């Protein structure tokens, strides 16, 4: 064949030619060969060009695409355009499910009918595609389920392989709702015992529930508690923990607070200062001295500064100070003379004004602003109700990491003695509840004589001046050596106002004047009611001798054997503790304010006026017992500071940084890390108390910002901020700079 190549057939002899040499006009033999080759080459080239044109025409001619190839191409294109990393196997399988397929033009044609048997290779391909598609769908569902499980597992803190926590039922939800509604019940005047009994009743039925048995086995022993309320809290915490929920805070949160990576700071804020010899001036001063002995924290005592006009009304013997530095020197000298060591704490002053009607100092402006933000770590509010009645400023629990309130005074008892006292006491009771709940994390009541405030517990966190314990030791030594320890009879010492027990004292002596004939009582004190008290005693011709007020540590008072204190308005009488420390008898009322002193054998309590007479005669006829070492320690400030650290949870707060560091340490035991996580989870639960506290704080802030409301509730005019005199004395910015008034 010569279709695409050179024609190999032998060329025909040209006419008139011969194979041999011709004569007479024939081509020469050489010429004939060249001519033949030339013609052959030209012919071959012509044929090659013709075949090339034919091939080009064939290739460029439109050819119908086979249906199978078209379906496969579309399946591949759809997979690529959708961003899939795998081919759409179902589409490829469907490409083979066709009724027929046409081959290219001029080629054989293939066709499959539904009833006809499939071509074996195509059948196998279709079967394989179906198998691959089923495998892929199964793997996809399995992968998705596994991913969901891993995602949920990563959201929880539960250790791998932990048991499933049973869900809450209706009874538990109702009990938790009632427990969380405690703040609302407090504000409505409903006793807390009612709520506690309802919660206990609901939870006691669940005691044998598998959920609680699971809790008792899964929780470490340090987290187990016999209290129903605590078990309910742990139960709720475990359920929320099992869901992976992490409560990040509520509406009222105020962002980050003081950084506690460095040394801790404690600010003790009180309502009075020396030389005013009152409990809120003396006891916080001693607390600052003994807390500062520890190297764990630095301490700042924040006391009110009074302008000279107010100093003359408050401080004894017309004592005044020209500057805060001068008053600070006086306070340190007085303290160090009594504690016997060099104190290491800072004293800061805030503006205050004296209110004659209430005989108390009211803060002027926002007291919290006088503690620098970098030191706003732990706050101890001595008399938190008093400090915050008219507080219009930063919320203490927003600025500080931990706030402890110490209740010194039974304000309700004082207010009830005034005109319309019952109505005033009702409002003050609810205001005190609001203040304690909104501004404190923990409240310590010195005795049960105080108002039952939210977040509170009863604990005596006050000690006595070490000088009184020294006097007691000296008197005990004299008794052991046979010397006469006491040369005088009975006395009473206290600020001369009716509420300090003078009314009760005069009534007792007037009622049993004949029974107490020959019994003389010396009274030491100064106060606003001095003239009235002395006039009443003189009018009744009572055997009471009045003297000017003296420091209880004065040498002239050491010789008395019996201290009589009939007051029922005190919370925890400091003078009673000091008399016991000096080894004297104390005759006092059977009252919650004296519960701490009952354990001392020299404390003689009475319930009736007849019992009072009997206890006085008993004390006058025998000698008191010397204090044991344990009794002396319980009265000391070292013991009081230890009780304060424990019951205010200050020891836990101060150790919180170290605990957190240990839990983050890789070398820490696994159970310690789990305990820390569980604790953080339980205290981060959403709590209705937080919502109520924040709402009360906001309402209090709005009300105390209104001058009309302040004045109608008894505030001193102009105490929403400090005045120019305070600005000058304390070197503060002028009031108009601190609180500018804009013209729009």
UniProtKB/TrEMBL annotation:
Region (Disordered): 1-29
Gene Ontology biological process terms in this record: galactolipid biosynthetic process
Cellular compartments annotated: Plastid, Chloroplast outer membrane
Catalytic activity: a 1,2-diacyl-3-O-(beta-D-galactosyl)-sn-glycerol + UDP-alpha-D-galactose = a 1,2-diacyl-3-O-[alpha-D-galactosyl-(1->6)-beta-D-galactosyl]-sn-glycerol + UDP + H(+)
A cellular component term, taken from the record's GO annotations: chloroplast outer membrane
Alphabetized UniProt keyword annotations: Chloroplast, Glycosyltransferase, Membrane, Plastid, Plastid outer membrane, Transferase, Transit peptide
Hydrolase found in the keyword field: no
UniProt record similarity statement: Belongs to the glycosyltransferase group 1 family. Glycosyltransferase 4 subfamily.
GO molecular function: digalactosyldiacylglycerol synthase activity
Natural source organism: Eleusine coracana subsp. coracana
Gly residues bias (residue ranges): 19-29
Protein's name according to its UniProt entry: Digalactosyldiacylglycerol synthase 1, chloroplastic
EC numbers for this chain: 2.4.1.241
Top enzyme class: transferase
Residue stretches making up the Glycosyl transferase family domain: 490-621
């Amino acid at each position: 064949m010569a279709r695409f190549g050179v024609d190999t057939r032998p060329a025909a002899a040209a006419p008139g030619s011969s194979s041999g040499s011709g004569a007479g006009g024939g081509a020469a033999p050489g010429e004939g060969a060249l001519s033949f080759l030339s013609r052959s080459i030209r012919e071959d080239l012509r044929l090659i060009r013709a075949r090339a044109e034919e091939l080009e025409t064939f290739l460029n001619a439109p050819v119908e695409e086979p249906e199978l190839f078209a379906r496969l191409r579309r399946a591949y294109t759809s997979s690529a355009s959708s961003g899939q990393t795998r081919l759409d196997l179902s589409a490829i399988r469907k490409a083979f499910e066709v009724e027929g397929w046409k081959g290219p033009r001029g080629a054989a044609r293939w066709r499959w009918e539904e009833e006809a048997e499939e071509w074996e290779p195509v059948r196998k391909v279709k079967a394989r595609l179906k198998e691959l598609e089923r495998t892929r769908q199964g793997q996809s569902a399995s992968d998705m389920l596994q991913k969901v499980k891993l995602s949920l597992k990563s959201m929880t803190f539960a250790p791998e392989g932990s048991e499933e926590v049973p869900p809450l039922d209706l009874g538990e939800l109702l009990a938790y709702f009632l427990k969380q509604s405690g703040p609302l019940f407090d504000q409505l005047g409903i006793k807390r015992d009612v709520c506690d009994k309802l919660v206990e009743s609901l939870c006691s039925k669940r005691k044998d529930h598998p959920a609680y048995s699971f809790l008792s086995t899964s929780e470490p022993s340090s987290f187990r508690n016999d209290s129903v309320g605590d078990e309910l809290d742990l139960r709720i915490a475990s359920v929320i923990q099992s869901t992976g929920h992490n409560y990040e805070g509520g509406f009222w949160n105020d962002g980050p607070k003081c950084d506690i990576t460095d040394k801790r700071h404690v600010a003790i804020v009180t309502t009075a200062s020396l030389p005013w010899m009152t409990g809120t001036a003396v006891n916080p001063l001693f607390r600052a001295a003994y807390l500062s002995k520890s190297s764990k924290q630095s301490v700042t005592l924040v006391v009110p500064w009074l302008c000279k006009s107010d100093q003359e009304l408050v401080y004894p013997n017309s004592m005044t100070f020209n500057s805060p530095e001068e008053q600070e020197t006086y306070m340190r000298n007085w303290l160090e003379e009594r504690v016997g060591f060099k104190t290491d704490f800072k004293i800061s002053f805030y503006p205050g004004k004296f209110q004659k009607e209430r005989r108390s100092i009211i803060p002027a402006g926002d007291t919290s602003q006088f503690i620098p933000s970098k030191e706003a770590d732990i706050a101890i509010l001595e008399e938190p109700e008093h400090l915050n009645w008219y507080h219009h400023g930063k919320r203490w629990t927003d600025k500080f990491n931990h706030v402890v309130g110490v209740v010194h005074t039974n304000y309700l008892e004082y207010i009830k003695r005034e005109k319309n006292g019952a109505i005033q006491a009702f409002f003050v009771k609810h205001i005190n509840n609001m203040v304690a709940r909104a501004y404190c994390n923990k409240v310590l009541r010195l005795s049960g004589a105080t108002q039952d405030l939210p977040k509170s517990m009863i604990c005596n966190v006050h000690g006595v001046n070490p000088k009184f314990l020294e006097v007691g030791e000296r008197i005990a030594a004299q008794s052991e050596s046979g010397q006469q320890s006491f040369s005088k009879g009975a006395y009473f010492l206290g600020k001369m106002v009716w509420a300090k027990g003078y009314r009760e004292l005069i009534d007792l002596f007037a009622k049993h004047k004949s029974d107490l004939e020959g019994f003389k009582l010396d009274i030491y004190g100064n106060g606003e009611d001095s003239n009235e008290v002395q006039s009443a005693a003189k009018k009744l011709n009572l055997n009471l001798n009045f003297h000017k007020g003296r420091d209880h540590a004065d040498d002239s008072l050491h010789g008395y054997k019996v201290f009589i204190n009939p007051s029922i308005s005190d919370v925890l009488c400091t003078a009673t503790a000091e008399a016991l420390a000096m080894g004297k008898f104390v005759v006092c009322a059977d009252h919650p304010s004296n519960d701490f002193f009952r354990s001392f054998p020299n404390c003689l309590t009475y319930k009736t006026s007849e019992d009072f007479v009997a206890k006085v005669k008993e004390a006058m006829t025998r000698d008191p017992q010397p204090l044991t070492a344990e009794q002396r320690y319980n009265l000391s400030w070292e013991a009081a500071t230890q009780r304060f650290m424990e019951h205010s949870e200050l020891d836990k707060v101060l150790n919180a940084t170290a605990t957190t560091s240990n839990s983050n340490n890789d070398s820490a035991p696994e159970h310690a890390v789990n305990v820390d996580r569980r604790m953080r989870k339980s205290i981060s639960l959403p709590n209705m108390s937080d919502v109520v506290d924040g709402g009360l704080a906001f309402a209090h802030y709005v009300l105390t910002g209104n001058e009309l409301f302040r004045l109608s509730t008894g505030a001193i005019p102009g105490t929403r901020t400090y005045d120019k005199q305070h600005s000058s004395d304390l070197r503060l910015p002028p009031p108009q700079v601190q609180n500018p008034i804009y013209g729009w």
